[in-house]
Specification:
Strand 1 (63-66), helix 3 and strand 2 form a beta-alpha-beta unit. It contains 13 helices and 5 strands. With 348 residues, it is an alpha/beta fold. This is DUF1574 domain-containing protein.
């Protein structure tokens, strides 16, 4: 019995020592930048839902880029040069409005934040306002909150240990070194085929709006916008908010259920009316840019466009082209509706 107790004590002490060493290692490396921006190694960019809150807290920037994968091909260094800012990309795959809001809260807590560029991706605002893309059980809330008591979930996590190892491997051994470049964070312009044939095949093989039409009901869209974006915008009148409607292809809308397309148009009008009198908001809509959206060679699927289109949008932000105004909103909305209704799907 004594031997068993002694063995148990030794095992417990060894286990606690291993946990303490793991926590100390993870704290020192801090791969998700929760406590400090990395100094003895370059940040390893992966897993946006995990990394982005740390980047938002600890990295140097005055302009943040938020949204779904529609924002992935923006290159921060190009934005910096074109707009005279210091930007950081914080986009997430299939981000919901709630996830964007959680991240935006961290961005806006920094007094250095001057500009926020947000992609207004229609599906992001569908469903309940608190919807999370992969469900609540999969979202790392502990990385977004201010409760240090739950930091053990970060410091003692096997996932964090793996993040730490990958970050050091990339820096010291050159393994996956491409992920050390912030310009290439979630960038996909280099490893996907773009073109009409590719897009048409993906369109035929997929349902663009698989959810029931009431999932895209206007009251859901409006409520989500109010809670997740508009509240932040009104609470920070000194921050410039640049809202972008990404130029998804006309193919995206062509066979959309009529209630879904109607609500998409009504949602455009809702956002316009909600922000038209706010001096800190600039609204850009690229969905009626026919030179882009009608040319399927610009796309890798019905929604995602090439990096050249992101560069085009940056130039438009610089010059004001495609900015929505009280004078052009309704004519452009009507023209967009006609464009979708009359556009002919090209043959392969």
């Amino acid at each position: 019995m004594k031997r068993y107790r002694a063995w148990t004590r030794r095992t417990l002490r060894a286990s606690l020592a291993i946990l303490a060493l793991a926590a100390l290692f993870n704290y020192a490396v801090d791969p998700l930048q929760q406590y400090r921006a990395s100094t003895f190694y370059r940040t390893y960019y992966e897993k946006p839902r995990y990394l982005n809150p740390g980047l938002a807290r600890t990295h140097a920037y005055d302009t943040a880029i938020l949204g779904s994968s529609m924002m992935h091909n923006f290159i921060p260094s190009e934005i910096d040069k074109a707009l005279g800012v210091k930007s950081i990309k914080l986009s997430m795959d299939a981000a919901s409005a709630r996830e964007i809001s959680l991240l935006l809260r961290l961005v806006l807590r920094r007094p250095q934040t001057k500009n926020v560029i947000i992609g207004i991706d229609f599906p992001a605002f569908a469903g309940a306002p608190d919807r999370l893309r992969y469900g609540a059980d999969t979202f790392p809330f502990h990385l977004y909150d201010d409760n240090r008591l739950n930091d053990y979930r970060y410091l003692l996590s096997i996932d964090t240990l793996q993040f730490s190892v990958r970050a050091l491997e990339a820096n010291w051994l050159g393994v996956r070194a491409r992920k050390l470049d912030p310009d290439l964070y979630k960038y996909f312009g280099h490893n996907h085929a773009f073109g009409r044939e590719v897009v048409l095949k993906k369109w035929r093989d997929a349902n663009m709006f698989p959810e029931p039409p009431d999932y895209y009901a206007l009251h859901n869209l409006a409520r989500s916008f109010d809670v997740n974006l508009l509240a932040h915008i009104k609470a920070h009148p000194r921050v410039r908010f640049i809202l972008l409607r990404p130029p998804v292809s006309l193919l995206m809308w062509k066979n959309a259920p009529k209630p879904v397309f109607r609500n998409a148009l009504l949602f455009k009008e809702y956002i316009f009316n909600a922000t038209r009198d706010l001096p800190n908001v600039e609204l850009y809509d690229f969905q009626d840019a026919a030179e882009i959206t009608a040319n399927l060679d610009n796309y890798m699927d019905p929604g995602h466009y090439s990096p050249e289109i992101n560069r085009f949008m940056v130039e438009c932000i610089r010059t004001g082209r495609y900015r929505v105004t009280p004078e052009n909103f309704h004519p452009r909305l009507a023209a967009f509706r006609r464009m979708v209704e009359t556009w002919q799907i090209p043959e392969d």
